[in-house]
Design goal:
- The chain is of the alpha+beta class and 385 residues long.
- The protein contains 9 helices and 17 strands.
- Strand 8 and strand 9 form a beta hairpin.
Length: 385
């Protein structure tokens, strides 16, 4: 994924429980008024928490349950587009054209960059969904060795959370899972479920010390009718790296966070009450592992060490705020690596789950896994689980 792209999604929340209802398949394309694809646009039915995002070529797919519901498309820098599901299905050319939202914040009296960061931190609890809620999340981790993906773990998890103003998730529960064949030579392990780091490594949640960075405005845009400024903080006083915060100039809500640490990104979406909720996250963790001569032969290299990576993607597919319906088991006891957590493979579940479109990140690593021995991923899921 290209973290510098200002048209990232604010990936939406959606409920996956469509069983027992009539399912309406909705698919199409999203482009701008010049005919270019709009990647990572949020495509949702807000009233039902159903949603997905467009791929790099602007295509999208989701399942609806009522033709009278409104389909909503939004992306940073464009005006939000709304149309009834039934009306969209009647279109002969199922292409949605977004109009650019022209922003000229340089002509508006703005606060100093540091002031926006201070206000964003102070307003975080007010702007974020901070009451106890459940996130239904698809969590993926690719393990790579020498630049090639050799193992995939996918979990459908339930997360009990108090939102961006809280330092960590309360607890998580793995309810469904599947994994590819394990083609790793080194099988590097990491104890505990790494979804926990989605919260722990989030600069908003771990605490941003405003004086550790030199802040500057590097851009402006809009989202959901609010003008936003893009603030970049460069570390000082021994603090490495940089942070970027996409902050609303009216509410001081933070819609996206990018960090040089782990090359990571967190994207937020407004819920129907106007509170920001996590919708998408990715990060990459790298290390070098020493290898012996026999392992050098396996990799076909002469180096004494090899680069190993964990590539993470997390999609929030649904949110439950009704305390009577929230049900998250205690998964704090997960001590094993994600790939070793015992989960029974339920093929029917994965076939019925409204999985987001495949990103280039996913496609590239899936191709790596399938190319090693020419075994399709679906077949690997059958054999390895």
């Amino acid at each position: 994924m290209n973290n510098s792209c200002l048209q990232y999604i604010l990936f939406l929340s959606c409920s996956f429980c469509l069983f027992g209802q009539q399912i309406i398949h909705v698919e199409g394309f999203v482009k701008d008024n010049s005919g270019y694809a709009v990647p990572y646009a949020a495509v949702s039915i807000p009233s039902k928490y159903i949603g997905t995002s467009t791929t790099e070529d602007g295509s999208f797919y989701l399942n609806a349950t009522n033709s009278e519901d409104f389909l909503e498309v939004s992306s940073i820098g464009f005006l939000t587009y709304k149309i009834k599901v039934g009306d969209f299905l009647k279109l002969s050319d199922k292409t949605i054209e977004l109009k650019e939202d022209v922003v000229s914040l340089d002509e508006v009296m703005l606060l100093a960059p540091k002031a926006y960061v201070i206000n964003a931190i102070k307003s975080l609890k007010k702007n974020a969904l901070s009451t106890r809620h459940q996130l239904n999340m698809l969590y993926r981790r690719f393990s790579t060795e020498a630049g090639k993906a050799r193992f995939l773990v996918e979990h459908y998890i339930k997360v009990l959370d108090r939102g961006a103003a809280s330092p960590r998730f309360i607890r998580i529960e793995v309810t469904q899972g599947r994994k590819s064949a394990d083609y790793r030579f080194l099988k590097d392990k990491y104890p505990g479920h790494q979804a926990l780091n989605t919260a722990i490594k989030n600069p908003l949640r771990e605490g941003i010390y405003k004086n550790d960075y030199t802040w500057a405005k590097i851009g402006s845009s809009s989202y959901d009718g609010e003008d936003i400024v893009i603030m970049e903080g460069k570390g000082k006083r021994g603090v490495k790296g940089w942070l970027r915060l996409y902050i609303g100039i009216d509410t001081f809500a933070v819609y996206k966070v990018e960090s040089s640490n782990l090359n990571s990104m967190w994207v937020y979406k407004k819920n129907p009450e106007g509170k920001i909720v996590l919708s998408y996250h990715n990060r990459t963790w790298n290390k070098r592992i020493s290898i012996n001569k026999s392992q050098q032969l396996l990799f076909g290299i002469n180096n004494k060490s090899v680069k190993a990576s964990y590539l993470h993607e997390a999609f929030v597919l649904g949110i439950e705020t009704n305390t009577k319906k929230i049900k998250v088991g205690n998964g704090a006891g997960y001590r094993n690596d994600m790939g070793d957590i015992p989960v029974k493979y339920n093929e029917a579940f994965w076939k019925n789950l409204s999985i987001p479109p495949e990103t280039k990140f996913y496609q590239k690593n899936a191709r790596d896994l399938q190319s090693i021995y020419g075994v399709p991923l679906d077949e690997q899921f059958q054999l390895a689980n």
